[in-house]
Design goal:
single chain; mainly alpha; 0% strand
């Protein structure tokens, strides 16, 4: 039973990766950041911060996708509250992505310069 829950969660991640263009972009950015982290041999503290912001962005994108799907399931017609729910969820991802980019700049620019 516990494995089924894990496999169901994994299936959700796979669906999001296959069907959501933004998830692919976030994963590409994460891959680049992790590759640079290995290349520059980041400190443990830098790795921790980097992994936390990567997890935050990807997790919020998964939540955003779930909210969009749930809203689409409930209503096929335009509704201002449905639009607001989707926009707010997308806004949460945007905030996290911007902060992640700033964190990435703070971590990597000293190595690049």
């Amino acid at each position: 039973m516990k494995w089924k829950r894990f496999l169901d969660a994994w299936a959700g991640i796979v669906v999001a990766v296959k069907e959501e263009a933004h998830m692919k972009i976030h994963l590409l950015a994460a891959f680049v950041a992790v590759s640079l982290a290995f290349m520059f041999r980041l400190s443990v503290q830098e790795w921790l911060v980097l992994l936390i912001v990567i997890a935050l962005v990807i997790s919020l994108e998964l939540i955003n996708t779930a909210i969009e799907r749930a809203v689409d399931l409930v209503t096929e017609e335009f509704h201002p509250l449905a639009k607001a729910a989707k926009d707010i969820a997308a806004g949460a991802v945007l905030v996290a992505a911007v902060i992640a980019a700033i964190v990435g700049a703070i971590i990597f620019l000293p190595y690049i310069i």
